[in-house]
Amino acid sequence: MKSGSRAHCHRGKTVRRIAVTILTLLALSVLYDDAWALPVSSFLEPAGPVAAAQKNHFIWVTLITLIVVLPAIILTPYLAWRYRYGAKKVAYKPKWAFSWLFEILIWGVPTIIVLILSVPLWNSTHQLDPYHPLASTQKPLHIEVIGLDWKWLFIYPDEGIATVGEMAVPVGRPIALDLTTDTVMQSFWIPALGGQIYAMPGMRTKLQLLADRPGQFRGLNSQFNGMGFEHQQFLTVSLKDDAFKNWVQQVKSRGIPLNTGRYGTLNKQSTRAESFAALGTPAMPQDILYFSSVPPNFFQQVIARYRSGHPLPPGDQPGTKAHGGHSTPSPNGKTGLGT
Amino acid sequence: MSAGNVNTEALKHPGINLGEAHGEAHTQAEGVVFGFWVFLMSDFILFGLLFATYATMVDHTAGGPGPKALFDLKSISIETFALLLSSFTFGMASLNLKHGERRKPIILWLLATLMLGLIFLGLELHDFSSMIDKGAGPWRSGFLSAFFGLVPLHGLHVATASLWLIVMLVQMGVFGLTPRVKTRLLRLGLFWHFLDIIWVGIFSIVYLAGLS
Amino acid sequence: MKRNDAQYHYDLRIYQWGLGLALLLTAIPFALVAFHGAPPSVLLWMIGVLGLIQVIVHFRFFLHIDLSSQKREDLHLILFTVLLLVIMAGGTIWIMHNLAERMMAS
Amino acid sequence: MTASDLWHLVFGRLGLQSLPFWDMIQHPTPSHIINGIIATGAAAVVVIGALVTVFLITKYRKWGVLWSDWLTSVDHKKIGIMYIVLAFVMLARALIEALLIRTQQADGLNGGFLSADHFAQLFSTHGTIMIFFMAMPFLIGLINFVMPQQIGARDVSFPMMNSISLGLTAAGAALVMVSLVLGKFETGGWTAYPPYTEAAFNPGPGVDYWIWAIALSSIGTTMTGINFAVTIYKKRAPGMTLFRMPLFTWTALCTAILMIFAMPPLTAVSLMLALDRYLDFHFFTNGMGGNMMNFANLFWLFGHPEVYILILPAFGVYSEVFSTFSGKRLYGYTSLVYATMAIAVLSFTVWLHHFFTMGQSANINAVFGLLTMIIGIPTGVKIYDWLLTMYQGRVRFTVPLIYALAFSVLFVLGGLSGVLLANPSIDFQVHNSLFLVAHFHNMLIPGLLFGMLAGYHFWFPKAFGFRLDERWGRLSAYLWISGFILAFFPLYALGLMGMTRRTVSYFDPAYTPWMLVAEVGALVLTAALTTLVIQLIVSIRERKANAVPVGDPWDGRSLEWAIAAPSPEWNFPVIPTVTDRDPFAVAKAQHTAYQSPPAYEDITLPTNSAMGMIICVVGGLLGFALVWHMWWLAILSALAVPVAVIAKSFDTRTEKVIPAAEVRQQHQAWLAQARQETPISRQLETSPDNHGLADNTIAEAST
Lengths: 339, 212, 106, 703
Ligand code: HEA
Ligand code: HEA
Ligand code: CUA
Ligand SMILES: [Cu+2]
Description:
Shape of chain D: globular
Distance between the termini of chain A: 58 Å
Bound molecules: heme-A, dinuclear copper ion, copper (II) ion
Radius of gyration of chain A: 27 Å
Number of helices of chain A: 7
Oligomer: heterotetramer
CATH topology of chain D: Cytochrome C Oxidase, Chain A
CATH superfamily of chain D: Cytochrome c oxidase-like, subunit I domain
């Protein structure tokens, strides 16, 4: 029939045009990536075993599922066209509505696919459980992470230092993170190293990561938490052992001690740039805060405050306006990565 | 499922007996009653979720008083007795509605039910206010929030049911025992018994488990 | 309409049984709790089981749900609801308990 | 008492600062001015729109008609149409918001023109409106209109409750609209996770608007679910066993069951948040034993079944469309029914997949991941059942079928991304990213929306007596399809590149080209909606030429096509007796359609009732009063509800009787017309010759 064929042509052209656009874009975005040399921000360019396993899993699940999905995509236009109204010499059986063969196929094949998929699902979920320590001969590096509006505070309890905006890790050594927030719920994520995990006030979640090559990776919060949300990014730097030791020294020598007063400034609603304006010194890198010492058990105390059983009026809750924050960042308080 | 054929047979729920002549009314009533059952089940889910929330929050006392310090077994037993008895008295009203259709015993049993319901509500309110006097209001802790989310919701249902009962007493006076009034009484009965079931959950999970 | 005495007494008996059983099933756990009649863990189980039985008693004797065919629809509805409730409430308790274990322990 | 005290007593916390341009006047910076102008413009559109509507109604003296024929009507067909009109109005707003979101992000490298606050309101209202006030009213409207006619009933079981449900939904929608003019809406997304939405962090009226809009519509939807389920259980025509019900009715039943059991968690969670905010409870607060994780848990106990509430009716539409336009019985009816039931039940067992990343154990994650993947099986069965329905059929490329084909190709891709998300280890990498946004729009637009649009084209003639314009319809369909692809496939890529959702701007220039493509897509989608409006106008103008009074324009198979178009108020002059799954198709083949019944009877119908409107106004006022802390108004309107209900319960005149003679006269006139018309072959289906009498000799010949 006429209208049918017209429909078909139209579709073909659109598809071709889209394909061309997408290819162009792919090429473009690769170019862009090189030109700016930004920190890696995708698990498709993994820099550690966790992200690599996730990428692998991603590809396999896609391929296996395509076995049942592709036929639907191909058969839809094929059947519609072949059995179009007015087509010559094709069977027409208006009452045919059942066939055991097809029934078994359409229930059976997807079931088999799901069975196949369930094995890697079960295994990977257990292997990549963020609480599950990574296999390694080295003792994990312990980092405590506190989510604030709108930056992350990293405490290295064993090294006795803390940073904001930059998290350095040694290559090849597992990293064991303990996370909480001193405001609303957030989600901690370094795509190139591994998946995300929520962080919540009064609670502690865990995450295990490992970087297996030196590099710079983007880290961020992915759970919306107010008007400076998009600024809550940081740089993850993986360094060879020596370089890492050196970095720790740098933080110690260039930083200032973290104390209650400074933390009180830091935990107000503000972006990293705004905090830097308040606390930073010329010795620190731009928009990155170094703390040369941290009060003992600092992380535990942040958690404990929410479990004390005493009411926390808004003024006592970091991340509220009442606590002294301003609910939107000032125009010159904008930060990201690569800018 | 047997729903294929519409059931025009007389309703077997005790408490309703519309008589042979009301074929249409029967199917009508059946739909209405079934609909009410469905509503009750939806409400059941609501309560179930509050029970689950309560169960996950019993320990969240935030340093405030816990169940042992707050619940008074004596007053709970009286409340429970009143409510159980009220289910029976409502049953008696339904029974008289089904057999005999004389208005007087129905009204008397309903009044008894109402009394018991109001006694229950009074005692419960007293419980709440004495808890609040002890500084144990919902603002004190997660546990108390969960408590005050669950138990007063049941109380609110009982209050609604009592109001409905009063309306039905008036309607019996105004309209007499018409089929409409009867199906309404039937639904009210379902509601009343249902609230008893919820209360069984409350006294078991909240009070008894809390005190043991 | 004529009053059917046999039926009346049968129905009355049902309500009386219901009240009797309900009172009994209430009295036992209350007494156990009041007089500390069992160690706490046993007590919790008993409260749970007796409560459950009582719920069934209410359904049977006050709400007149049984296995007869006219009640089948209501029964199915109730059982389906119970299934969902077990999934929802049970799931909630399972998940929240697990989360508490993994996050609150310091 | 000072003037300000008095003001607070009467108007609560409403004040000048609640007006959309106040910010701009206070802080006249460029950014404030741009955002102020947009906000004021939006408010003005709402206010002017309302005023123009009032003016036009007054000018053409339509208040009486509007009141007595529509607002107080309890006829399921009219209520259904009003739901869809509501969906359309809300849609217009949500689409503009989507366009603003896309435009902002296209311009979002290191900035953009919208403020963060404004952007947050946009995605929150967009999500809330699309789900609760566009998709839900649309599908509820469609079921309302179609389902009773498909089962051979004259109305739903509880017609007045139906009108009250509409009232509650409309009140919720009105609250969202009012938030444009007075105050601001919530900013934490349609999911409104605390503690961000707790009073400590968001003391303003925004979250309260969300709470009361959601609570009202949630209660309304629960009632709708009860109504539909009871109707389908108790009001089927004789002979229509469950396994003879059309598939659309089956999906309506499953959707209704989901509504009955999935709305209570939403009601609970929204009211619990309200208790936290208004009465200092600690369900979800930081500290004092609150547990915010339970919010996510309860919300998704609703939220996941909700997405199947949205998709199942669309599946129902596709079932009808594939079989009707293939001129063939539906393949695998029983399979489809069991698949639908399986999806409905399974949908209650997977909610945790929305928070795999919260920190629970691997066992829990794996169990819920597996259960989630299992849903793919029945869904796949359905897709292949539809494909097999085309197999050895005669497929006509009408507008509904085009949507159905596009659905079949695109939806499975969304399913593929869903299966990926179902794997916890993968979800850890794409959760909260634009990949997720792409997934769900891939389900919602080609799945739900195309389904609703197919249904709209399919049943429009039944509702209004004339077909929609075919050419504009096709153009619109192609625009929808290509617009969707352009707007959302880039988001998959962006998500994999690590871009999060809900972000007003970004700092990675590699995102920009994808953003620009998505912007083009959003513009194409806007064009698509525009063509849809044009189509409606054109169709109304040419309604005479496209009239199908006999009522069967598509050679339909189920009972709704056996009556006139538009359907008579009582649907069926005589309740039909059903002997087959495709009752009307069989009747046509056996030449028993269009026959006079042996006798007519009086028909009892429910009378109009103002209850729906009363509840709508009172419920809306209650929500508004609570948002603004006008306690007196809150108490008054809360009291008005039981008063109205009790008063109504004393009203005994709830039924009217249509005399048999009137029914006969109308029915006979229609039959006479049907006998006069020439049956139209499918070749001429979309031509003006189609007056709604189908020629099915070919179908007969080949059996
Ligand atoms: C049914 C649901 C639905 C629909 C249809 C849409 C449609 C669209 N949505 Fe969205 N969207 C959501 C539900 C929906 N959305 C939800 C739930 C969120 C999450 C919010 C949150 O973060 O909390 C979201 C978030 C969201 C974002 C993410 C913002 C972010 O997190 O960064 C974006 C960004 O581009 C977006 C864009 C769009 C666009 C361009 C469309 C366009 O496709 C618009 C085109 C669609 C229409 C115009 C509707 C068509 C309807 C009809 C034509 C009916 C016609 C009626 C009659 C004829 C009677 N939406
Ligand atoms: C109509 C709406 C709709 C539908 C139908 C679906 C269907 C599915 N969804 Fe989706 N989903 C949403 C709307 C929808 N979703 C929304 C709105 C959100 C996010 C809300 C928010 O956060 O704001 C979401 C989020 C969401 C998540 C959470 C992700 C996260 O937050 O990190 C997950 C995770 O598992 C998921 C999975 C699935 C799966 C497995 C299906 C399955 O049902 C898909 C089944 C279909 C197929 C698989 C394709 C066809 C099948 C075959 C061709 C057969 C063969 C297939 C196999 C053998 C596998 N969805
Ligand atoms: Cu969040 Cu524990
Ligand atoms: Cu889901």
